[in-house]
């Protein structure tokens, strides 16, 4: 790790452990408490988990907003209360009438922006309490539909009653709900049998460290795998500052756009956020706000400052 202030560690989570279990492994391995994660994976799921260390915990909202890709297996003909294989079976239906061509047509209907109802067993808060806690108590949980976007949905293998899917979707998409909805449209019900997260934004599971290795590798070996703060958002343009401006920003000063000569960035990128950098170190994440006529002299919005 080049940045001593923190960074991101890519971990391949094993089946059976919670996302918090992985966080605890990293805390023990690196002997630090300031560790979190972006994008929870259910215990039965495997794959990419982004572990945020030190100052990188401030990047969690930006990382969590990235699109995600999954390798998912849907089991047709069986509905469960959790929408996955760990739940109680609610209904069993024959899949004899389901044809491959019908499956392909149904999948097309989920592409683009759709309204999705989260699973009753989810971490969404209902009147101040987690939905899954209410569901476990046997209380009816009614969650409002949310807009999500499915960029890609492809059946990579059909071996009824199982369908293997490639899913590329927006943040906030529940693949469990997607599996359940596919079953409803096919008229036979379904649940999510397996789930593996393949990528989050530009980060891929092939580059991740196996979670079991966190207990076996030395501290220095793990730190060598950590992605620095400045490299954590590779698609966000970097704006170089001099030493004096970097010091002022770290002390809370919000610079104007003309002080950083952002003209080429505003016209060339049109990005909502920028990395303010000094000699390879991330100093802040700043937003442009209104970039209409006459706004070039306006102050930026400091979203996060890294000390």
CATH fold annotation of the largest domain: Pseudouridine synthase
Rg over CA atoms: 22 Å
How many domain modules?
3
Helical content stands at: 10-25%
Order of helices and strands: EHEEHEEEHEEEHEEHEEEHEEHHEEE
Question: What share of the residues does DSSP label as strand, in percent?
Answer: 25-35%
CATH architecture of the largest domain: 2-Layer Sandwich
Please summarize what this structure is.
The protein has 307 residues and is α+β, with helices and mostly antiparallel strands. It has helices spanning 19-30, 60-64, 100-108, 131-136, 175-186, 219-223, 243-250, 263-268; strands at residues 6-13, 35-38, 46-54, 68-76, 78-80, 89-92, 112-116, 125-126, 129-130, 146-159, 162-169, 190-200, 203-204, 209-210, 227-228, 238-240, 273-278, 281-287, 301-305.
Main features:
307 residues; alpha+beta; Pseudouridine synthase; 3 domains; 11-stranded mixed beta sheet; 8 helices; 19 strands
Describe the structure.
With 307 residues, the chain is of the alpha+beta class. It folds into three domains: 6-66 and 202-231, 2-Layer Sandwich (Pseudouridine synthase), CATH 3.30.2350.10; 68-200, 2-Layer Sandwich (Pseudouridine synthase), CATH 3.30.2350.10; 238-305. 21% of the residues lie in helices and 35% in strands. The strands form four sheets. Strands 1, 2, 3, 4, 7, 10, 11, 12, 13, 14 and 15 form an eleven-stranded mixed β-sheet that branches. A four-stranded mixed β-sheet has the order 16-17-18-19, with helices on one face. β10 and β11 form a beta hairpin.
Which helices and strands occur, and which strands form pairs?
Blueprint (H helix, E strand, L loop, with lengths): L5 E8 L5 H12 L4 E4 L7 E9 L5 H5 L3 E9 L1 E3 L8 E4 L7 H9 L3 E5 L8 E2 L2 E2 H6 L9 E14 L2 E8 L5 H12 L3 E11 L2 E2 L4 E2 L8 H5 L3 E2 L9 E3 L2 H8 L12 H6 L4 E6 L2 E7 L13 E5 L2
Parallel strand pairs: 1-14, 3-12, 16-17
Antiparallel strand pairs: 1-3, 1-15, 2-3, 4-11, 4-12, 5-6, 7-10, 8-9, 10-11, 12-13, 17-18, 18-19
